[in-house]
From TrEMBL:
It comes from Ophiostoma piceae (strain UAMH 11346) (Sap stain fungus). Keywords: Acyltransferase, Transferase. Residues 119-347 form the Peptidase C45 hydrolase domain. One of its GO terms (molecular function) is acyltransferase activity. This is Acyl-coenzyme a 6-aminopenicillanic-acid-acyltransferase. The keyword Transferase applies.
Length: 357
C-alpha cells in the first residue's frame, strides 16, 4: 500500500525476514536515503559517502553487543534492497546522527501530556522538520517481530527505528540536539529509538536507556497509556528527565537542552528558533494537555514566526540544512491505541492516515 506517496510496509517474523521485507518494499526509498545523506554529509561534515561508511564502522561493535537482532535485520534490509546496496550502506544510515550531528540538527517540536479534564487520555505528538528531499525516503511500517510487541512506525527508509506506538500503548518521538559529545560504546540514536519501542512501558524504556546510554545527544519524548510521560534529554554523559511542572499536565521540547540538572560540561549548539518555538508551544498549550487529537493538530499547524515556526516553511534562498520544512506530523492517543500521521505542512490540511490496533 501507498499513502500520499509513502509506502506502507508489513514487516513480520524473524529479524532477517523483517529486514528483507523492509529492503524489498522500500528499495527505491533506501537509495533515496543514501543519495540524501551523501549530499548532507558533504554539506555539513565535508565528507563523502565512502568516508561516512568508514566512520560508521566504529559503531558496529556497540550494535552487535546491545542489539544483535537489529544487526541481522540491517543485513536483511541490505539484501532485500539489492542492486549494490550493502550492509555498510545500511549501517551508515542507522548512525547518520552520530556521523554529523555536531554539524546540524533537525527542527522538530514535540509534546506529551495527560488530559485530566477528560478521560485521562495520554497524548504524544511531534512535527518532524527536515530537508525537503527527505520526503522521498519516508516509509510507514507495521512491525510484527517475533517475541516483541507489534508497533506502528514512521521511519526513514533503511533505518530501523524512529517514531512509533506499540500494542502496550507506549509511544516514542525524538528531537535532534546539535552537540559534539560522543561515545561509540553506547547506543546510536536510531538504534535506541527502536529498542525503546520494543519496551512495554515508559518505565521499562527509561531503564533501558539509562542502562545502555546513548552514543550521541538527542531528546526522546515518551509516554504510555498508564499515564507516565516525560521528555528525556539523552547524552553520552548521562540522561536527564524533564517532567511536567506540578501545576501542569504537559511537557514540550524543541532542539536545545534545557533540563536544569543536566550533565555538567554538556554543551549544545542550537539555532535561535529552537528557543522561540519552545516558547510558542508553551504559550499555546498554557501548561495544559490537549483534550483531543484535533487540538494538537491545531497547535502543530501554528505559523507564528514564519519561516522558522512550529509549522515550518522553507526560508527564501535557504541552502544546506536551513532549507528544512515540516515534513510530517505524528500524533498518538495512547489511551485508545490511535496513531495518525500526515505528510507535509499540517497548516495546509494534508491527508491524514489514521491507524489503530
Amino acid at each position: 500500500m501507498v499513502f500520499h506517496g509513502v509506502p506502507e510496509l508489513l514487516c513480520e517474523g524473524s529479524p532477517r525476514a523483517i529486514g528483507l521485507a523492509h529492503g524489498k518494499g522500500a528499495a527505491q526509498q533506501i537509495r533515496n536515503s543514501i543519495a540524501l545523506y551523501s549530499t548532507l554529509f558533504g554539506e555539513t561534515a565535508g565528507i563523502d559517502w565512502p568516508e561516512a561508511r568508514r566512520r560508521a564502522q566504529v559503531f558496529l561493535p556497540s550494535i552487535q553487543n546491545h542489539a544483535p537482532h537489529l544487526y541481522v535485520e540491517m543485513q536483511g534490509i541490505a539484501d532485500g534492497a539489492g542492486d549494490g546496496v550493502d550492509i555498510d550502506d545500511i549501517l551508515t544510515l542507522n548512525v547518520r546522527s552520530e556521523i554529523a550531528l555536531t554539524n546540524y540538527s533537525e527542527g522538530c517540536t514535540s509534546l506529551a501530556g495527560i488530559d485530566p479534564a477528560g478521560r485521562n487520555h495520554v497524548f504524544l505528538a511531534q512535527n518532524w522538520d527536515w530537508v525537503e528531499e527527505a520526503a522521498d525516503s519516508l516509509i510507514l511500517i507495521d512491525l510484527r517481530a517475533d517475541g516483541k510487541p507489534r508497533a506502528l512506525l514512521m521511519c526513514e527508509a533503511g533505518i530501523v527505528g524512529k517514531f512509533g506506538l506499540n500494542t502496550h500503548g507506549f509511544g516514542v518521538c525524538m528531537n535532534a540536539i546539535r552537540c559534539g559529545a560522543q561515545d561509540v560504546s553506547r547506543l546510536p540514536v536510531h538504534i535506541a529509538l527502536r529498542l525503546a519501542i520494543e519496551c512495554p512501558s515508559f518505565a521499562a524504556a527509561k531503564a533501558l536507556l539509562d542502562a545502555k546510554g546513548l552514543a550521541s545527544t538527542c531528546n526522546i519524548v515518551m509516554a504510555d497509556r498508564g499515564g507516565a510521560f516525560g521528555t528525556f534529554e539523552c547524552s553520552p554523559h548521562g540522561n536527564t528527565m524533564i517532567r511536567a511542572a506540578p501545576s501542569e499536565t504537559i511537557v514540550c521540547h524543541t532542539n536545545h537542552l534545557y533540563a536544569p540538572n543536566g550533565p555538567r560540561g554538556l554543551v549544545d549548539h542550537p539555532a535561535a528558533n529552537s528557543f522561540t518555538r519552545l516558547a510558542r508551544i508553551q504559550e499555546l498549550t498554557g501548561g495544559r494537555a490537549p483534550q483531543s487529537i484535533q487540538q494538537i493538530r491545531a497547535w502543530l499547524s501554528d505559523e507564528h514566526g514564519l519561516p522558522a515556526a512550529i509549522c515550518r516553511q522553507r526560508p527564501p534562498s535557504a541552502t544546506g540544512t536551513e532549507r528544512m520544512v515540516t515534513l510530517a506530523t505524528i500524533i498518538m492517543d495512547l489511551t485508545d491505541f490511535e496513531l495518525e500521521v500526515s505528510f507535509g505542512r499540517p497548516s495546509l490540511s494534508p491527508p491524514v492516515r489514521q491507524t489503530t490496533f
